[in-house]
Amino acid sequence: MRTLILLALAGLGAQLVDGSLGMAYGVTSTTLLLAVGTNPAAASATVHLAEIGTTLVSGASHWRFGNVDWRVVAKIGVPGAIGAFAGATVLSSLSTAVAEPAMSLILLALGLYLLGRFTFVGFSSRNLGKPLRKRFLSPLGLVAGFVDATGGGGWGPVGTPAILASGRLEPRKVIGSIDTSEFLVTVAASIGFLAGLGSEGVNWTWAGALLLGGVIAAPLAAWLVRHVPPRILGSAVGGIIVLTNTKTLLGSDWIGAGGAVSTTVYVVLYAVWAAALAYSVREHRRNAAREREEEAAAAAGTDVKEGAPSA
Q: What average pLDDT score do residues 86-104 get?
C-alpha cells in the first residue's frame, strides 16, 4: 500500500511538472520504477499505459484553456506514434542486463539536457507566428517517439525544447500541443509493449496508481502553465533525473564503481545541482524585474505622450 501511495504521489508530481513544462512525466516516473527494481521494458510499458489516461485528460485540459495548436498536433503526433511503436519493439527484445544501464544512460542524457536547457537558456520570440513546417515536425516526432519508448520518456524533452527553440509558437501552446499529441505516442508505445511483452509484463496496479495521480494533477497543470516559472522547474527535475540515473549506472556492470568513487560523484552532482537551482532562481527574478521595469517605462512613455496635447 505504501508503494502505491508513493507511486500515486509521484504520478501527481510528475504530471504537474509535465503539464507545466511539456515534459518529464515519463522520464520521472520511469526513473522511479527503475529505482525500485522494475524491469526496464516493464517500467516503460507501465508508465506508457498510465500515460494513456493522463495524456488524454491533460490534452483535454490544455484544449479547454486554449493551449493547443491542432496543426502541430497532427504534424508531429502521427510520426511520433510510428517512432514510439518501433522503440517499444526494440526495447522489448533486449535483455534486462543490457536494457537497464542503456535506459539509464538515455535518461541521464535527457536529464542533463533538461538541467542545462532550463538553467542557462531562455525562450526566443523573434520568429513567433511563423508556421512550423511538416519537414521539421515529422522527423522530430519520429525521433522523439522512438526515444520516448526506449527511454521510458523523452517525447517532451526532445520535442518541447526543439519547438521552443524555433520561436515560432508561444510557450504555452508548445506545451499544450506536445502534451496533447503525446496521447497518440503513448497508445502506439503501449501496443508495441503489449505485443512484445504480453500483459504479464506490465504491473497494472502500479500503472493504475500512476494514472490516478496524473489524472488528478492534469487540469491543475494546464492552468499552472501560465504561472509556474519553467526555468526553475526544469532545473529541479533535470537534477533529480541526473542523480537517480547516475546511481543506477554507477552500480551497473558497465561501471561497478566503489563506495568512495560513488560518494565523490554524488557530492559533485549535488553541488552542481544546487548551483544550477540558485542560478535559475536568480535569473528568473532578474528577468522578472527587468520586464517590470520595461513595462513601467513603456507606461510612463505612453502617459507622457497622451498628456502632451493637453499641456
A: 72
